[in-house]
Automatic annotation (TrEMBL):
It comes from the Bacteria. Residues 1-59 form the HTH lysR-type domain. Pfam families: HTH_1 (PF00126), LysR_substrate (PF03466). Gene3D superfamilies: 3.40.190.290, Winged helix-like DNA-binding domain superfamily/Winged helix DNA-binding domain. PROSITE patterns: HTH_LYSR. Belongs to the LysR transcriptional regulatory family. Keywords: DNA-binding, Transcription, Transcription regulation. GO terms for biological process: DNA-templated transcription. GO terms for molecular function: DNA-binding transcription factor activity; sequence-specific DNA binding. The gene is gltR_1. This is HTH-type transcriptional regulator GltR. InterPro entries: LysR-type_TF_proteobact-type, LysR_HTH_N, LysR_subst-bd, WH-like_DNA-bd_sf, WH_DNA-bd_sf.
Amino acid sequence: MASWDDMRVFLAVARAESLSRAAPTLRMDAATVGRRIARLEAGLGAALFVKSPQGYALTDLGVRMRDHAADAEASLTQAVEEARGDQAGLTGQIRIGAPDGAANYLLPQVCAAIAAENPGLEIQVLALPRVVNLSKREADMAITVSPPQAGRLTVQKVSDYRLHLAASKSETIENMDDLKGHRIVGYIPDMIFDKELDYLGDFGADGVQVASNSVAVQVMALRSGAGVGIMHDFALPFAPELKRVLVNELSLTRSFYLVRHVSDRSSDRLNRFAAALNHGLKAEISRLERLVA
């Protein structure tokens, strides 16, 4: 019979897909983690992982066990929260995964406000140029630009946001023809991780001459006079050297979604944090967009 300590080790390896990456989380050395996994598999009489030079990949049984173990972990966490009676304020650590546009220009202000009201809370922002994997518990919740279509997840729309072409204030761009001869700043085409971020077709650009997988790098490139590019309206107040151009000719609307693992629905702590995050994001997007309207 597997113990909860066995499940804790199993979950760490399942999420990290590697003994060496799981070891620091467990405060064990990789050899000990490997022995624990081997003992667990021997006790079950079945393989939970397929081992290869690339790491540890879950078998079908391993996937099912991971989901059940994650549910049990969430229930245990909820029980501890209730025992502590943390109703006066949120405590512990909560990690949010987010695309770097939201991570750079929205979450610092929103998280600062939430942290000010909850001194015992540690908030981590995981900014990645890809979709955060909640099933592997890379984060407790994630902000996305498209609602996920698969997985044991709950999805809540947070807010629409707007994007426009932006360029240096020294540039004169009054019509679409004026774009000719300007370099285009945008995403590296083969590293666009969500179709909602593929803006090229919206304004007929042939390609990107100054590219990055990071919104923050794109904004800095625009601020340095590298060209013209699509920019979040909520980021413009942080770039006073830039202006929106061709506002009537090109205006895009996208949305943010708050995504959580379905097993966390019963966690009062995460529910309260998600509500504060949702409210804060809506208010901050609205505030920043009003500054450039």
